[in-house]
């Protein structure tokens, strides 16, 4: 089976509906066909301001949501980035073949520093895409399932793989970006021209997987809709309704066309009421399962220890190859 790898940051107390529908649902569906490796990039989460008291907890909550959302630890490898030191070690080597100008052109870094100013940004944030490249290249995966917003980072990983191979000899697999069709991008409920994100202007724009069901339902019902009354899909003219249709379609597995046909002659309100119900129905079992997992942190940590061990067996072999190729003196221990 071909290998896949992906991760989601533990940067909030819950994943949001965009992470769930745009990423996790796909990850789950690919577990049988591929040898999947999923991890929680906690080292990426310290590149911005954060509270150390929250991080470990958020990491466990993120893992619990992966599993509650359908990641099967018997089929797939699941681990936490900081448990596998090879990520940081390979990142250093890759930093040394990344151009300063090349890293400066990453749009996510530019966007973030445009708001805060570069004096408030860390070197870690600057080097973040290189760490992400290390995350990927260590496992020599065929593909990396991510949303459109990660495309440029994937492109850097591909460039670094090619550059390293060219300079030091065939070492890395050049990974493919596995990006779902347009349908999988979820927008902010209050501002349907911006992607749903934890840094949303208003909490009403974002549904968290662990939101109280009443809150989640209310957010759907108060979502911004568009002029007119007719329900049909048009991202340009009807971004609000189109976003609700996308959410409906991804949650229910029905096509957008068939949903539109069902709501012929009905009003926006009808769609919202039904969608609110569907969201609550889908989130409830995930929330219950996540809570069960979080009630037994020792068991969760045992699962993660097993995952880290599986991951390290792959990562350490790649890193040993890299260290050898770049000319580091072998340690007695590795001989
Ligand atoms: P992150 O944590 O921002 O997002 C995790 C995944 O969720 C997708 N996503 C969305 N999809 C649809 N609609 C949305 N509104 C939406 N918001 C987020 C993202 O595209 C992503 O697939 N740098 C990465 C984490 C990372 C990583 C890696 C990923 C670190 N190392 C190695 C893959 C491989 C990030 O910050 O994703």
UniProtKB/TrEMBL annotation:
Its EC number is 6.1.1.2. A motif ('KMSKS' region) lies at residues 195-199. Keywords: Aminoacyl-tRNA synthetase, ATP-binding, Cytoplasm, Ligase, Nucleotide-binding, Protein biosynthesis. SUPFAM superfamilies: Nucleotidylyl transferase. InterPro entries: aa-tRNA-synth_I_CS, aa-tRNA-synth_Ic, Rossmann-like_a/b/a_fold, Trp-tRNA-ligase, Trp-tRNA-ligase_bac-type, Trp-tRNA_synthetase. GO terms for cellular component: cytosol. Pfam families: tRNA-synt_1b. GO terms for biological process: tryptophanyl-tRNA aminoacylation. L-tryptophan binds at residue 135. It is an enzyme of class 6 (ligase). It is found in: Cytoplasm. Catalyzes the attachment of tryptophan to tRNA(Trp). Belongs to the class-I aminoacyl-tRNA synthetase family. Homodimer. PANTHER family: TRYPTOPHAN--TRNA LIGASE, MITOCHONDRIAL (PTHR43766:SF1). This is Tryptophan--tRNA ligase.
